[in-house]
Amino acid sequence: MTQQARNLAITTGDMLSVRKFLLHDRDELFAGSFDTVFRFEGLRVIRTPVRAPRANAVCERWIGSLRRECLDWILIVHRRQLEGVLREYVRHYNAHRPHRSLGLRAPEAAPTPLPATRASPRDVRRRDRLGGLLHEYELAA
Question: What does the DSSP 8-state code read for residue 105?
């Protein structure tokens, strides 16, 4: 794992320096030398708490949503395509996808006042993302 960390630091170059934290669990694979590589790059290494099996739940939930809603439905051919798909999905997830814990609003969505009258289907606009895999709906202005 330490060699993988070194390879990542070499290939990403300055991209790693914009990050602030590295969060990982307490698996035996992540030896002290693994953490040292990232500390040398200026990252603060944070390990998940001991005996806290639900500490990774948020990340695992997000990765599961990404796979079920997006990656399981697309054939990825090369890295640049994968990066574009991930960028588009993250934008959709944070700005348009409804979240139950937020009252069916997206994390970055501005609160919109409810219309005074009931909207007809003609007043709703649909925008397709990722070739029609994702749909975003909004009221027409």
Answer: B
Closest CA to 95 of 106, 111, 110, 84: 106
pTM of the model: 0.58
SS3 content of the chain, % helix, strand, coil (to 5): 50, 15, 35
Name the phi and psi angles at 120, rounded to 5: -90, 165
Instruction: Read off the amino acid at residue 105.
Output: R
| Domain definitions of the chain by residue range | 1-52
Contact present, 99 and 107 (Cβ < 8 Å): yes
44-100 confidence digits (pLDDT tens): 998 888 877 777 777 788 889 899 989 999 999 998 999 999 999 888 888 877 766
